[in-house]
Amino acid sequence: MHPLYEQMATSVFERMSLAAAKHGAVNLGQGFPDFGWPPEILDAAAGAVVEGSNQYAPSRGLPVLREAVAAHYARHHGLDLSAENICVTSGATEALAAAILATVEVGDEVIVFTPAYDAYVPLIRRAGGIPVEVALQPPGWRVERAALEAAISPKTRAIIFNNPHNPTGRLFDQDELATVAQIAVANDLIVISDEVWEHILLDGQRFTPIASLAGLAERTLKCGSAGKIFSLTGWKIGWLAASSELATLAARAHQFLTFASAPNLQSAVAYGMNDGDAWLQPMRDRFSRARDRMTSGLEAVGYAVLPSASTYFLCVDLAASGVSLDDEAFAQRAVTEAGVAVVPLSAFAEQDPANHMIRLCFAKRDETIDAGVEAMANARKLMT
């Protein structure tokens, strides 16, 4: 048995979702929306099952989808890409796996900003690499040049950079992007850029892909997600966008992970990418309203809520809310005693975890948000 997996705990998302189901709790833990997907894309997928191919797609993805992804990024971000720069994957987590396996060798160090999506560290270790955590500090969660420079060593091979950032909801500013870019170039590092939240932009924010900065186009593997863009997380259609050399390298790893993804879903995503720009702003507006509804509800019952500029998530500072329990203890009691599932932020770091913070998903219908806020109010009464 491989010791990495023998000793690995179940993902916090799976753990809290199972607990929510067991206790009949409102699930504000796992990050999936219960509204927001364009019905036209569902129709396109259904039509493709009947009218299109149901056999293996090309490993690097249907040409129509690879071309659509490249054209989408040209329109929205001015990136100079073609189908040769795109590799379609079974979700963005598989894109991350392919990127890491293709670029990280045994003994390489990989920088991870924490709190971090919990797939990064196990994937780095499975590749034989060594994760090096750089802790972002609440409440600002800023990338600090001194902290990043201090983490660099002669063994550093790559930086995993998640922007917009899960779980904090931060959209990093131009100075922070420049810091990462300059340090990557100065140290000849690969940047694996997890940009799946690039279109979930609230309050009129604008997103800048890190590959557009000087010196980054040839050293960046960008991970994207149709599931996040179209609120169809269960489809698990993602992609890598990179230089031809890096895209080909990652595609070689990808072919022995999942080989290919469902062709009808790829076809429907291509339709959405080509025809769906008008859907983006209404989607952002709906998520902004949901975030504001949850924030105002939580604040009204005494919780200290941190700002969220992107993603489906907001963070609550338990200590500032008058709750003395740590995040794990609060999460366990909240789901079993108050009927609401949340995610403890300490699960997103191994060193220097923010163990007085929890993450909640606001990508829910009004009635789900209201029920969750009511349960959170009961949790606070029980635990203060």
UniProtKB/TrEMBL annotation:
Keywords: Aminotransferase, Pyridoxal phosphate, Transferase
Domain Aminotransferase class I/classII large residues, every copy: 26-375
CDD domains: AAT_like
Secretion signal, residue range per the UniProt entry: none
Co-factor(s): pyridoxal 5'-phosphate
Keyword set includes Cell division: no
GO molecular function: transaminase activity
SUPFAM superfamilies in the cross-refs: PLP-dependent transferases
Pfam (any one): Aminotran_1_2
NCBIfam families: PRK08912.1
Protein name: Aminotransferase
Organism whose genome encodes this protein: Sphingomonas brevis
